[in-house]
Write a structure and sequence with these properties.
Layout (H helix, E strand, L loop, with lengths): L3 E2 L3 H10 L8 E2 L3 H5 L8 E2 L11 E8 L9 E6 L2 H13 L2 E7 L5 E21 L5 E17 L7 E2 L7 E7 L26 H12 L5 H6 L2 H12 L11 H10 L5 H9 L3 H12 L3 E5 L5 E4 L12 E5 L5 E7 L5 E8 L8 E8 L5 E8 L4 E2 L2 E6 L3 E5 L22
Parallel strand pairs: 2-18, 4-6
Antiparallel strand pairs: 1-15, 3-7, 4-10, 5-8, 6-7, 7-8, 7-9, 8-10, 11-12, 11-20, 13-14, 14-19, 15-16, 16-17, 17-19
Helix pairs in contact: 6-9, 7-9
Length: 420
């Protein structure tokens, strides 16, 4: 099947579906369902206890590579279908529940040397399952949460292909520090006036100007390092998405913002390697200020616009999901897409969004896989349709600057990873 999907597909398809059943009360999709990753089955057991590590900690942990940058705070669903991988990670879960995910460099083909330390909070297996040929093998399913940025304890002198870490292996890693600056005018302000200070009010602005007058620097210099001001700018940007889980703490907020912005692999890695939370937020605000469109990474054909990004999960507009073959996809959800062709029949098997079927979506111009279209199984479910785009297969480009070469090229192995 090869259909062209236009920006009117959501409205047209939904209205046509509703014509025959106007009496049913509309039901809004529960965005907490995808965050539960129920497609992984009901046999996962909750893990108790947690590991507390400080910056500078070094140790040997099992690691494997994925084709995208994962930030602390993100949920990592993992399905290991290789027997040796399942056994190694099972041993790690019994020990301290820790493993590492390595980030690629900006090309997506080499290991950057950085990654995240993940802590398993639900696990099932390892258990025997038949492979495609019917032969038995061990498989392990788990859900983990990325908790710390890490890097190799000994950074390699030469770039290493990411495929060398396709299987689980033990390496020595170091937990990276997270720098958080205090309120820049804290030592200059009058504590007796603290009860009058309210964020983003004229009175607060005058009080801050009084505080700055007692220092060698003008107020605008301190505004650059004012976390409250940065958070207000970001809140204004994300309020249109109706996300109510924006963190308060600076480090957590910087990771949350980085996870929920549509960025190129190079920009995501640039945000990841920064140690300072405020600097990371400044970089994110600069990215927000651009008017960009999501384009096919192979041919730069326009696929979606930034204003079409919608949250279909309580975790935000972006989430990680794993398919039945164990490949983890980095997905951003949009309400509509352009220049998209559909391939194959719709299926509800292993659907990441309960109540929706999925259909493989390709770029209509070059045929590259870019994601999936999700269609509601019930006529009264809203939205009736949306798209899940792989962030490895689409790139944000500034409007009017799409004539250059594609920023990210797919590897031949990606052709086998299209199924949800």
């Amino acid at each position: 099947m090869e259909d062209n999907v236009s920006s009117d597909s959501e409205a047209g398809g939904g209205d046509a579906a509703m014509e025959g059943d106007t009496d049913e009360e509309e039901e809004q999709f529960d965005i907490s369902l995808p965050a539960a990753h129920s497609y992984m089955g009901q046999g996962l057991v909750t893990m108790s206890g947690r590991s507390v590590l400080e910056a500078g900690w070094e140790g040997r942990v099992p690691v494997l590579a994925r084709h995208g940058t994962v930030f602390p705070g993100e949920t990592v669903p993992l399905l290991l279908t290789n027997t040796q991988d399942a056994l190694l990670l099972s041993q790690a879960i019994e020990k301290d529940k820790l493993f590492g995910l390595l980030c690629p460099d900006e090309s997506g083909m080499l290991v950057s040397g950085y990654g995240v330390l993940c802590e398993v909070f639900e696990a099932g297996g390892p258990e025997q399952q038949p492979d495609a040929l019917g032969d038995p093998h061990l498989a392990l399913s788990c859900k983990a949460r990325a908790v710390h940025r890490i890097r190799f304890a000994d950074m390699p002198k030469y770039s290493v292909p990411i495929d060398l870490y396709a299987r689980v292996k033990y390496v020595s890693v170091r937990v990276l520090p997270e720098v958080q600056l205090h309120e820049p005018l804290r030592h200059a302000r009058l504590a007796s006036l603290d009860s009058l200070r309210r964020a983003r009010t004229p009175l607060d602005r005058r009080l801050r100007a009084m505080d700055a007058a007692t220092t060698p620097w003008p107020l605008f210099v301190y505004d650059i390092f004012d976390y409250r001001r940065m958070r207000a700018v970001l809140r204004d940007h994300f309020k249109t998405l109706m996300l109510d889980n924006m963190p308060e703490e600076p480090v957590s907020l910087s990771f949350w913002v980085a996870s929920n912005l549509t960025l190129s692999p190079r920009e995501r890695l640039a945000l990841f390697v920064v140690d300072d939370a405020l600097l990371r937020l400044h970089m994110a605000v600069r990215f927000i200020g651009r008017r960009s469109v999501l384009c096919c990474s192979s041919c730069n054909g326009e696929i979606a616009r930034r204003e079409h990004v919608v949250p279909m999960s309580s975790e935000g507009v972006h989430s990680n999901y794993t398919n039945i073959g164990g490949y983890m996809h980095d997905i951003v959800t949009v309400s509509r897409a352009y220049n998209v062709g559909l391939t194959g029949a719709a299926s509800a098997e292993f659907s990441w969004f309960p109540g929706y079927t999925w259909t493989v979506a390709n770029c209509a111009a070059c045929g590259s896989h870019i994601g999936w279209r999700f269609d509601a199984e019930k006529r009264n479910l809203r939205p009736q349709q949306f798209f899940g785009l792989c962030r490895n297969y689409v790139s944000p480009l500034v409007e009017g600057a799409r004539s250059g070469r594609a920023r990210h090229r797919r590897s031949p192995a990606d052709d086998d990873e299209d199924d949800v």
